[in-house]
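ugh ok so i messed up the first submission bc i forgot one of the chains. this is the corrected input, ALL of the components this time, i swear. 440 residues overall. if the numbers dont match what u have on ur side tell me asap before i send this to the collaborators (the ones from the other lab, u know who)
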Amino acid sequence: MAEEVKLIRTWSSPFALRIVWALKLKGIEFETVLEDLASKSPLLLQSNPVHKKVPVLVHNGKPVSESLVILEYIEETWKEKPLLPEDPYEKASSRFWAKFSDEKLLPSVWTVFISQGNKQEEALVPALENLQFIEEQLEGKKFFGGEKIGLLDLAIGWMADMVSVLEEVTGLKLIQEDKFPLLSAWIEIFADVPEIKESGAPREKLISKFQAIRDAYAATK
Amino acid sequence: MGDEVILLDFWPSMFGMRLRVALAEKGVNYEYKEEDLSNKSALLLKMNPVHKKIPVLIHNGKPVCESLIAVQYIDEVWKDKAPLLPSDPYQRAQARFWADYVDKKLYTLGSKVWQTKGEEQEASKKEFLDCLKLLEGELGDKPYFGGETFGFVDVSLITFYSWFYAYETFGNFSIEADCPKLIEWVKRCMEKESVSKSIPDPHKVYEFVLQLKKKFGIE
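and heres the new structure output, hopefully the right one now
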């Protein structure tokens, strides 16, 4: 029976991109369905009626929503090239840091990049603290997953291209190499992995998008 | 072989209760340590330096934080008894999705119900009930969210029951009126010893919330 795997996503969503990476790393063939969030398709509304968000993975007609839930589903369905360790404690640790990335790290970094002046200086404090926690997780490791890419690398992977785009848009260097040597090294190694390298959104397009968002925030002050 | 299991908790926390239920389901002996959240212990700060929150499960000296992550850990370590997550990957994804939904919505909306008044409170009540109705729909005719047996989503949601009386009293509404099937499910769960022994008396929770309101000047 042929497997049908569809990924409903937008061109720029970092949450969707982590699913692209997981599918490619596992060698799973899939079809992309690009969404325009200003005009959501019936397929999206039907597949994720609760949140109406991307990404949604549709496997043989059955939808799975929420990117971290999708990653675990992919891991459990296609068992080759595992992304999670076997040991329950190590698994719990990966899950903890993935949640931290989504609930604390990403929002705090985002706030730095959309704010100006004093507000930006204030926003830097929690962002740098959060980055320090993540830096410590890389101690003695090449990837967050150890020798190989794991689920946590995919969860934090938004840092690899988004941060440099945001740094270019704002002129603020957030991840300084002397302060975050391990994270800086990881960003280079991660971005260089073939499946990651070939999947990124066009950089110029991302720069325009974030410039527009930052301008819109500045205009509301 | 001795397993040392410690739970750092705070008695009215619906998140901490989840771990009490899960550990009871698995028949695990553990030491319960009550935290004073206005004066957090050195142990708590050491075991959860990132969030400094309860609950924290400490298993043979190693901490697991974030309640749903800890419940999954408990399910995976003590896997020979009372499995909480199903074995099919798609059903596991559905269980994780709905537990995540409970986490994302219920606490915040419930808090708004007892912390606000007037129009804001009315709006919060409506949103809160809408969430419960969605969950009730997801339960359908099944005895538990897990199907025939008590499972992951049941654990994640049942603990909020201890706060229902507080929400209803401060919000002046009845959850049973809008979600009768959900309350039937609550009663079914409360028949389980692992649940009834882990969840405090809703009237005690109400008293606690009353104290909180006074302390923070929320009338």
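quick check: The interface with chain B takes residues 50, 59, 62, 64-66, 68-70, 72-73, 76-77, 88-89, 91-92, 95-96, 99-100, 104, 133 of chain A (CB under 8 Å). that seems consistent at least. Chain A has a mean pLDDT of 94.
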